[in-house]
Amino acid sequence: MTPKSTLTGLADLDRAHVFHPYTSIAAQQADGPRVWAEAKGVWIRDAEGRELIDAMAGLWCVSAGYGREEIADAMADQARRLSYAHGFLANANEPAIRLSARLAALTPPGLDHAFFCNSGSEANDTLVKLVWYYWNLRERPGKKKIIARDGGYHGVTLGATSLSGLPHMHALFDAPLPGFLHVRKPHFYREARPDEDEDAFSARLARELEERIVAEGPETVAAFIGEPLMAAGGVVPPPRGYWPKVQDVLRRHEVLLIADEVVCGFGRLGTPFGSHHYGIDPDFMTVAKGLTSAYFPVSAAVVADRVFDVLAEGSKEHGALAHGHTTSLHPVGAAAALGNLDILEGEGLLGRAADLGPGFQKLLSDRFGDHSLVGEVRGEGLIAAIELVANRDSREPFPAARKIGLRLHELGLEEGVICRALGDSVAFCPPLVISEDELAEAVERLGRALERLTHELESSGGA
Fold it and tell me: What is the pTM of this model?
């Protein structure tokens, strides 16, 4: 436990100097930070000595769990041997080369080329540029528009913000940029018509996508991007038949497909990637988070052979690809990723969500499915969400100003579990190393928080 005087000093320094991501500056100035001290497995301890179950794996990322000595040792050994080497002008290092080959073996067939970045946001920005570059090389410079989905999350750089379909990310940032379009999210609970089953809903979404492409002009539409299962948009699994129907539309109109696997990748759904789980055949894939379990900031824009071959041929005339980062192919980051993949593969974690997932989803459904404040329990593998509603029968949401999801998140922290508020949906995405007992404990703790929220609402007169 950190002495109170030290905590006070840290809080004062934080207020004075730290500019936090995704944080109200006014709230940070008023309340100060929550300071984390150490973590092991799925448990994380704050500086005041309180221990919590991290049922969100940090930000969907600490797949191998905290405190893995194997990854720390791999990073330290590499830092002593070769702490940095850039990748410009065909410079290389052994860990990055081996990581590229490792990714090619894990991803679906034909995705054999990795361009390394620092974050999922950067990787998606890279793919936007590569999509445009590809169509320019194909002498079809009019194909520039990229279609994403309402509710999708693809990062916070300017291009990635434009890809994302979350209005709060666009307000005050003059986003999205021109040429970034959005279509309906595949959320059956919220978007399906009363007379539609999942197949009919998927068929309508595919028709709407095709109508949008035709209206824009197929000669202007370059690519479509989607997460196999939407994560930050509320944990939304695709309805039955969605991805085959979407891919048929894209192929008919020569629209490239980007699979954003930043959350779904590396075992979250019980297969190595979400593309395996849903039968997606992408032209590009974005990976990050679980690539290193967030022990080091590494991401990759993965490119299919059929695209790479066009880029390679174009380089004969146009020379070097004018894109890259100082820390692309970072040897310490690559060593962290290799150490992490050794754990994920060696301990069977890439398939563990398939084993634990059905029981986990049932546990959530049994605990929350009939609760008066819960409209839907949804998920796949080891990712899930419960959606809070003011009225179960009408599916009426709470007024946004009530911030009910955030309040449940706060009560969860008091009960010793970290979940994530996504509007009025509250998400679970625990480390893949979590045990069945720890899963049950996390659900129980959130259950206690939900009962407290219920009493609060009853005392205040409800919604």
Answer: 0.97
